[in-house]
Amino acid sequence: MVNAGPPDDLGDLTPVLDEVARSRGLTRFEEIGRGGMGVVVKAWDDITARWVAVKIFSRHGVGRDMGLQRFRKEIRLLASIHHPAIISVYYAGKAGDDVAYFVMEYVDGPNLATLISRRQEEGRPFTVDETVTLLRPVAAALDHLHSLTPPVFHRDIKPANIIVRPVRDGVDAGVLTDFGISLSAEDTRVTSEGMVVGTDHYLAPELFSSDPDTGTRPDRASDIYAFAAVVAEMLTLRTVKSTMSEPAWRFARGVPTYRAGDLAPEDAGRVAVVNRAVADALHPDPSRRTRSASAVIDAVDERPGVGE
Predict the structure, then answer these.
(1) What CA–CA distance (Å, rounded) separates 163 from 112?
(2) How far apart are CA 264 and CA 128, in angstroms?
(3) Please, what is the average pLDDT of the chain?
(4) CA 55 centroid distance within chain
(5) For residues 17, 18, 22 and 23, what is the CA-based torsion angle, rounded to 10 degrees?
(6) Residues 6 or more apart whose Cβ sits within 8 Å of residue 59
(7) For this structure, is 156 an active site residue?
(8) Which residues lie across from 101 on neighbouring strands?
């Protein structure tokens, strides 16, 4: 059974899990995550003999017409996407009148936010090599989304939405998940008027002034900004937002300049390369930003002295 209670508007999860168990043959439920959209539960699939993850949406997320539209969009979107660094969705359903869920691939590993928190406690930033190895698959996944016709924008790239799984010999790789607010270039926004979508610490500057109808829409450039902010956070253990004041973050966004001591000791000689990569990827003008997530990784991974 679930370890802790769900968000208040979801109520008791037992009837939902009973319905999932009855209709899908899932058992051995255990909560593994929660957020504003609902709860994620680990479950055993008796039919396929594998662990799966069940994302149960709160009524706030799917109990109204707008939320149901978002839910149906997410399912259609995820069902059409196939990439080794993107979580696969198996099927979806509803329990009762207004609780929706989908069942997806379970990745046995912590999310990147947890690993960053551990490194902060240790005072040990990720090295450039660690960052590049872990995030290169995520960069490829993000570029894949942007290359689709029409392109798909994730809109909530952040450490909590990157799951880290072991690959081999102690090497970890990231997997992109949580497309609850993804958007196709052909879609209209399904958020309520005036609502900014995304997570503040990773939100591109142009989105703070967005109007749902006429303002800047989340796109490739805003995904790149968020991805680059995650890269910078791994390398320095500080969010980009923490490097400036709240007014500057919202109204006069700049680009941080890091010192050698901000990086892992073995990367002190690469600070100029990191600053150049960060300046390009976090440029306040989206038209001047690095064009792909993989290009961000390549720029960070450049050897000191190359191109200078």
Answers:
(1) 6
(2) 8
(3) 83
(4) 15
(5) -40
(6) 9, 10, 11, 67, 98, 99
(7) yes
(8) 56, 93
Cα–Cα distance measured from residue 235 to residue 274, given in angstroms and rounded to the nearest whole number: 9
- Residue of 45, 156, 178, 223 marked catalytic: 156
Phi-psi category of 31—alpha, beta or left, where left has phi over 0 and alpha has psi -120 to 50?
A: beta
- DSSP letters spanning 77-111: HHHT---TTB--EEEEEEETTTEEEEEEE---S-B
Q: Which amino acid is at 64?
A: R
> Would residue 303 be called left, alpha or beta, if left means φ above 0 and alpha means ψ between -120 and 50 degrees?
beta
Q: What is the four-CA torsion angle of 110, 35, 235, 83, rounded to 10 degrees?
A: 60
d(CA 281, CA 161): 20
Strand-pair category, 89-95 with 50-57: unpaired
The answer to whether 259 and 238 are in contact (CB under 8 A) is: no
Q: Which residue has the tokens 């696969």?
A: 88
- Burial class from Cβ neighbours inside 10 Å (0-12, 13-18, 19+) for residue 174 reads buried
Please name the residue ranges forming H helices in the chain. Answer: 14-24, 59-62, 65-79, 112-122, 128-147, 220-236, 246-251, 271-281, 293-300
Read off the pLDDT of residues 168-223 as tens digits, 9 standing for 90 and up: 766 789 999 876 544 444 443 333 333 445 678 999 999 886 555 545 678 999 99
**Under 8 Å between Cβ of 226 and 202:** yes
Closest to 47 in 3D by CA, of 31, 26, 68: 26
**How many other C-beta atoms are found inside a 10 Å radius of the C-beta of residue 130?**
18
Question: Which amino acid appears at position 188 of this protein?
Answer: T
Distance from C-alpha of 304 to C-alpha of 45, rounded to nearest angstrom: 49
Let me know the angle formed at the C-alpha of 279 by 308 and 175, rounded to the nearest 5 degrees. Answer: 105
pTM: 0.84
Partners of residue 53 on adjacent β-strands: 42, 104
